[in-house]
Amino acid sequence: MLQNMKGAIFDLDGVIVDTAKYHYLAWAKLADELGFKFTEEHNERLKGVSRMRSLDILLEIGGLEFPEAEKVVMADNKNRLYVEYISRLDESELLPGVKAYLTGLRARGVGIALGSASKNAEFILNKLNITELFDAVVDGNKVALAKPDPEVFLIACRELQLLPEECIVFEDAEAGVQAGQAAGMKVVGIGSREVLKEADLVIPGLHVL
């Protein structure tokens, strides 16, 4: 499966770098300000989900409702805090095997794209010093629909000028696995076999490839 792919599309958080911890810290601070506790277990529900949908889930956990305009301000405040955290990122925070695997794919002539809900994807890639390894970056600024909708992967595939069946998606979230399969692509799950059981292949990280 991996030997024949012409395009590889990677999620960002949990596949390339672990920024989930910084998202969690920022969401937890917002929840604290709103008067309730947001746990790491709660945070699992936010994996691979857009910023506004994540906020809706957080407010649902807290049993709170706000007008749309206030929610936009909350999401912006959370993002400012998150950007403050990730501004300290550097290449040392790349997950094991990432740079070697991407470099190997480039040497084989495989097209490489990022397919992420993050609106800070390009900023993060620059911080990690790996922007030049990607032929296309499709992030939350380019898509209207969140995973499990396949939009992000279909756009990435189009930017690589490939067909869906020629691409493989690398994902760490259940919603991302579903999105990749809905796009007509094979999916490699990064992480737990129990959580990612729908993936075509599940591995602990890119370092094993």
Notes on the protein architecture:
- Belongs to the HAD-like hydrolase superfamily. CbbY/CbbZ/Gph/YieH family.
- It catalyses: beta-D-glucose 1-phosphate = beta-D-glucose 6-phosphate.
- The active site is at 11 (nucleophile), 13 (proton donor/acceptor).
- The chain is an alpha/beta fold and 209 residues long.
- The protein has two domains: 7-18 and 91-208, Rossmann fold (3-Layer(aba) Sandwich), CATH 3.40.50.1000; 20-86, DNA polymerase, domain 1 (Orthogonal Bundle).
- The protein has eight helices and six strands, in the order βαααααβαβαβαββ.
- It has a six-stranded parallel beta sheet with strand order 3-2-1-4-5-6, sandwiched between helices.
- α1 (20-34) packs across α4 and α3 (51-62) crosses α4 (68-86).
SSE layout:
Blueprint: E1 7-10, H1 20-34, H2 40-43, H3 51-62, H4 68-86, H5 98-108, E2 111-115, H6 121-128, E3 136-138, H7 151-159, E4 167-171, H8 174-182, E5 186-190, E6 201-203
Parallel strand pairs: 1-2, 1-4, 2-3, 4-5, 5-6
Binding site for substrate: 11-13, 27, 46-51, 54, 78, 116-120, 147
Binding site for Mg(2+): 11, 13, 171-172
Cofactor: Mg(2+)
What name does the CATH topology of the largest domain carry?
Answer: Rossmann fold
What letter string, H or E per element, gives the SSE order?
Answer: EHHHHHEHEHEHEE
Strand order of the largest sheet: 3-2-1-4-5-6
> What is the number of independent domains?
2
Proportion of beta-strand residues: 5-15%
Top CATH class of the largest domain: Alpha Beta
Oligomer: single chain
The count of β-strands is: 6
Catalytic activity: beta-D-glucose 1-phosphate = beta-D-glucose 6-phosphate
Family: Belongs to the HAD-like hydrolase superfamily. CbbY/CbbZ/Gph/YieH family.
InterPro entries: B-phosphoglucomutase_hydrolase, Beta-PGM, Beta-PGM-like, HAD-like_sf, HAD-SF_hydro_IA, HAD_sf, PGP-like_dom2
Site (Important for catalytic activity and assists the phosphoryl transfer reaction to Asp8 by balancing charge and orienting the reacting groups): 116, 147
